[in-house]
Write a structure and sequence with these properties.
The complex is a heterodimer of chains A (120) and B (139).
Chain A: H1 2-27, H2 35-45, H3 49-71, H4 74-81, H5 84-94, H6 102-119
Chain B: H1 3-33, H2 41-46, H3 51-71, H4 76-83, H5 85-98, H6 104-123
The chains are: A mainly alpha (120), B mainly alpha (139).
Chain lengths: 120, 139
């Protein structure tokens, strides 16, 4: 059961965060933080298909995570789901076409090893 | 560093701090308010109205929105490692607020995460230079 939940969490988180990044990149940089401008940006974003799909995927991930927390310790849940860093960095390069230089790869790996040490 | 790069870097730091703090404290309150077990699907929704869980959820909504704003200019491959500094904050919160022990292994992990964050945030601009998209906001 716990591995099924972890599979769901990893897939949904990866999909959600990549879609979120794709949607926001399409929207472009948010520069105006006055309340009216924020409201207009939100009105535009709730119609952004990438953002809608991202929020749906992250909701799936959130409820699966709630379920996981009731049957597993945080110290198991956190490192087991840290693998999303690898998948998301790979997708950032090939799907989002980001320039992932060696510093970012090295940083992502250091973070994964660190997360495993902190929580195992 | 040009004025534009400095502006973007400052803005990136401000939002990264909001993203990290809202995530760490959101998860902290969520874990604090969760009952030992969730049975029926209905309980997954009713638990959202428990005060600590509700506070956690509000903070996680702040997290979602601030992360969206950050991703509107910063690369995902930059945001991911930089916001991982939250794992360090979790350990510190555990030590300060809950009096948890930080073992040697945990300190080593914290060191690796900090090194990773420093490598990514110090070594590259937050944004890949993309050709300007032809369209305006909203699409």
């Amino acid at each position: 059961m716990r591995w099924l939940l972890i599979g769901i969490i990893v897939a949904a988180t990866t999909a959600g965060e990549v879609l979120q990044a794709a949607g926001m990149r399409r929207h472009g940089e948010i520069r105006d933080f006055r309340p009216g401008a924020i409201r207009r940006a939100l009105a535009v974003l709730v119609r952004n298909r990438f953002v809608i799909a991202a929020v749906a995927a992250m909701a799936v991930s959130f409820f699966a995570y709630l379920g996981l927390l009731t049957i597993a310790d945080l110290s198991f849940a956190v490192p087991a789901t840290a693998i999303t860093y690898v998948f998301e960095t790979v997708l950032a390069k090939y799907v989002l076409k980001e320039h992932v230089n060696w510093l970012r790869w090295a940083g992502a790996w250091l973070v994964i090893c660190g997360v495993a040490l902190v929580s195992l | 560093m040009t004025h534009e790069q400095a502006r973007l870097r400052l803005k990136t730091w401000i939002f990264a701090v909001v993203v990290v703090f809202s995530n760490v404290f959101g998860n902290f309150f969520l874990k604090r308010g969760m009952p030992p077990a969730l049975g029926t699907p209905l309980e997954y929704f009713t638990v959202l109205f428990h005060p600590w869980v509700a506070l956690g959820v509000v903070l996680l909504i702040v997290w979602l929105l601030s992360r969206m704003v950050l991703l509107s200019w910063a690369d995902l491959s930059y945001v991911l490692p930089v916001t991982a500094v939250g794992y360090v904050l979790v350990a510190v919160v555990g030590k300060v607020l809950l009096n948890e022990q930080i073992t040697m292994k945990r300190w080593a992990g914290i060191g690796l995460i900090v090194a990773g964050v420093a490598l990514v945030s110090g070594g590259s601009a937050p944004q890949t230079a993309h050709p300007k998209p032809q369209a305006g906001p909203g699409q």
